[in-house]
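Justification of resources, computational component.

The compute hours requested in this renewal are based largely on the per-chain cost of generating structure records like the one below. Each record pairs the submitted sequence with a full structure-token output. That output is archived, and it is also reused by downstream analysis tasks.
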Amino acid sequence: MIFDNKYIDYSAKSKKELYETLILFLLLSNKWIVSIAKYLLNIALLLRIPILGIIKKTIFKHFCGGENIIESQKKIHQLGQYNIKTILDYSIEGKNNTKILEQTFNEIIKNLELARNNDFIPFCVFKITGIVRYDLLKKINTQKKLNSDDSKELIAVKNKLLKICEIAEECNKPILIDAEESWIQNGIDKLVEELMYKFNRKRVLIYNTIQLYRWDRLKYIKDLHLKSKRENFKIGLKLVRGAYMEKERRRASTKKYKSPIHTTKEDCDNDFNKASEYCLNHLENMALCFGTHNEMSTHYIIELMKKKEIKNNDHRIYFSQLLGMSDNISFYLGHFNYNVAKYVPYGPIKQVIPYLIRRAEENSSISGQTNREIIRIRELIKKH
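The structure output for this chain reads:
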């Protein structure tokens, strides 16, 4: 495979730091350890045991840029030296507390202002649950009739989204809106499509995220594409496999409905590749961000681009990986002048814990990928 270690530059990291990373991935590769650690973490937080310092020095340090924008700027600059951009992600989500929702909204505006004159930041990103009450989204998703207070709240939410998009338009920075759990995603899709219709007339400013571990998402892409042609707007799509697999399957099993997740990894991979090809075939009215750590899919997309004579740095195509994962892919793409960016989550440690738990569960469930990370880090230690 083309994505080997030779393009990675870890000269700024000490051997001690590489060993710490190795130990972290060895722990994350064990599903049993991750499960026990998650249980103990919840107990520790409930009992107010002071463990946040330990978290900050370990998993938080590896997967996050810092607790605030200022702390994260060092990481933005480091990545930029290797032609790898940064997508700052204030990783607060799923709250019903109006004060926290307002803080997150203000943080998104701060991100846009930081990105305004910063070439290292090509997008701004947020989750709808960062600014909308989770319970309200569940109501919207099931199309239940909203009461008077809910209706007023929804109008206020739409005004906030409009303000974010208006500032993004002024700053000339596109917005990536992340995907979330299936039981709120239909409501999110509806909100994002309204924004696309308004702001994606001449260029793509708004991107929706498609989780292709769901068996219904390829059809959704095709339907949205047809709708965009009928209604004369462009669509932005970030294609990912997905981040809620364990939670989705548990809920489907508990509530006894058909799981929205593909039954096999092969089916998921096939849909991701089919979606990638479909979108590249219709690039005239799309812009894409491929969020993947899968080497075969990344290579497949690169080959499609060559076949279609699409330039490496075509402004309509970005690749992205999460901070702390698949550096071999990111550094390769940066080296060969593809548009590539790392998602750099940040936020107060306690608030970012749901994100860190997802990263831990993802690494323990995708053993092949985690084992490749371990092999890669061992090779880098030998050469250091």
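Residues 148-171 form the longest helix (24 residues). Residues 65 and 75 are 6 Å apart (CA to CA).
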